[in-house]
Design a protein that fits this description.
Helices cover 69% and strands 4% of the residues. The chain has 240 residues and is mostly helical. Strands 1-3-2 form a three-stranded antiparallel beta sheet. It is globular, with a radius of gyration of 19 Å. 38% of the residues are buried.
Length: 240
């Protein structure tokens, strides 16, 4: 591992430690340690303290978090399955880098599925207090990671009552990847402020029982995020 890579990984130590409760480090059952380690690493990634392409060395992370390498290894496998980490037999684990094209693919899939799932949730008479609480958490978030996780919970609550568990599972699988894309976009600007206003409008329509408006607003919300942050590249004109 190059010196610059080691420095980058260790620079995240204060935030990782802050995200990992001191009383939990090195204590409790292995599954509990794995969950705590997983949440700490996820928080550091979404906060931008562990950056895309940065190596995740098991020994370094275990030392920082006060655990053995086993829960770190299990946590990294889970994060790889969620799309936040890439694992290679040659290079080991690194924070996933999402290209603009990959981001468009993720959001294109959401655009196809999520508005319909929300329309069904509203039509089914789903209750919205958890969604409102998630909006409040996002508004008072201390950092990008907390805001990202709160927004993720908000979107999940929007489609939680769609009545199709398979549709919900597909959208669940996209949540962490969506959070990674959002976190990277927020590093470039404050688009989250516009998104917060859009979230409130979507929820207002949902609470009013207006399934069509809630679905349409969500569709425009997803589309406008991509237009702002990952626009389609201009195609060269073909010669006549």
């Amino acid at each position: 591992m190059a010196d610059s890579e080691k420095t980058g990984a260790l620079s995240a130590a204060p935030t990782v430690r802050a995200a990992f409760p001191a009383t939990a480090a090195g204590a409790g059952a292995v599954p509990s340690r794995t969950i705590a380690v997983l949440e700490a690493i996820k928080h550091a990634i979404l906060a931008g303290n562990l950056r895309p392409g940065q190596p995740l060395v098991e020994t370094d992370l275990a030392g920082l978090l006060g655990v053995s390498k086993t829960p770190v290894r299990e946590a990294l496998k889970t994060l790889a399955g969620a799309g936040l980490v890439t694992m290679s037999p040659y290079k080991g684990a690194v924070v996933r880098s999402v290209s603009a094209e990959q981001a468009r693919h993720i959001y294109d899939l959401r655009l196809l599925l999520e508005p319909e799932a929300v329309r069904r949730s509203v039509a089914a008479g789903h209750d919205w207090p958890v969604a409102r609480l998630a909006l409040d958490r996002a508004a008072s978030a201390a950092d990008r990671a907390e805001r990202s996780l709160a927004n993720r919970d908000f979107h999940r609550e929007l489609y939680a009552g769609c009545g199709n568990p398979m549709l919900g599972t597909i959208l669940d699988d996209l949540r962490d990847q969506t959070a990674l894309v959002s976190a990277e976009a927020w590093r470039q600007g404050d688009s989250w402020r516009d998104e917060a206003d859009e979230h409130r409008a979507i929820l207002d329509a949902a609470q009013a029982g207006d399934a069509t408006t809630a679905s349409d607003l969500l569709r425009e919300h997803i589309r406008s995020f991509m237009t702002r942050n990952f626009p389609e590249p201009e195609r060269e004109m073909e010669n006549p």
